Amino acid sequence: MNKKDMARKELFQKGAIILLLLMILMGALLLPDRNAPGTGRAEAVTPATGSGITLSPDYVRGVWISYIDFKPAGLYNKSESVFTQNADQLFKQLKKDGINTAYVHVIPKNNAIYPSKFLKWCTSMGKKRPNYDPLEILVEKAHKYDISFHAWINPYRKTMKYVFNPAKQASTNRILREVREIIQNYDVDGIHFDDYFYPSKAPGHQYSKVSVANRKKAVNKMIRSVYKTVKKYNKKLQFGISPAGNIEYAESIGCDLDTWLSTDGYVDYILPQIYWSDQYISQGHTTKLYTNTLHKWTDLNQSDTPMYVGLALYKAGVRSSADPGWTHKHNNIVTQIKKGNQNDCQGFVLFSYAYMNKPATKKEMAKYRKYVKRTFR
Is residue 13 in a domain? Predict the structure, then answer.
């Protein structure tokens, strides 16, 4: 081989090396930065389709802990030591069941499960106010097991029948005072409202003559004020709402869903309560009411606001002539979670804690636990 050929060969080898290095560099640049916000992903396989579903690392696997759950959870009327032990066991079991977010009733009916300066004591937590702070313990134990704690408030409820007038500024001021008391004194991760705003527009109900437009106007003013208050205190705190699953009904009681799901400054997430199976009986025909309603919500969500789906665990295993799917099958919850994932929902929330351990839900929960263990390991 002459010098000219050797030079040509050496040049070719160097070129090949440079090309290889460029390819490696380009590949590295195309890989996502796992530390960059919003780029991390957890890959999970959805057995229903056999395809990979990309889930956000902050995918919500939640449960509502209602005031009616305090007794089943061993939290009612306990000494501090027993309450603390039972709270620890509660969140330890939730962690085992794949739960990463708890929505806990802290103000159910114009009363509080903590020593409030403004509200009476919640007797669903005990006969009288204890010499310790239940909310402080619950938040601490939830965080011990890496479970986010959202303070669940019924904003307008005065009693089970009556609400404070949403159109009055005094009602909004009252809600803001409660929100501030919670976020300033407890290490909660968010404030959560459920589906109680104005009462039904049925004749004879409180404020039934108030138009839907005026209902939405009053509620929107309050929602914006709460959002602003929460974010002013800590931008990382979440504020979200769980409306009734029936969109028409939710709007009739004052939920301006179009605005909430299209305009900044209202909610960080929406959590519709889609409490039906896909074997619902309507006018003598079986309809896929869960799936149809889910599609309505995702179609409504044009701004891609994080959406979690509320699931009716309390109906599992319970006979119903109107909705027999809850006894015809025992994989409703798992199927509904999968359908939520396939429709870009970013989580699910079960109603409610006590039903995770009921005899009627045993088969449903067995399938749920198997799915969670396999999918969210």
Answer: no
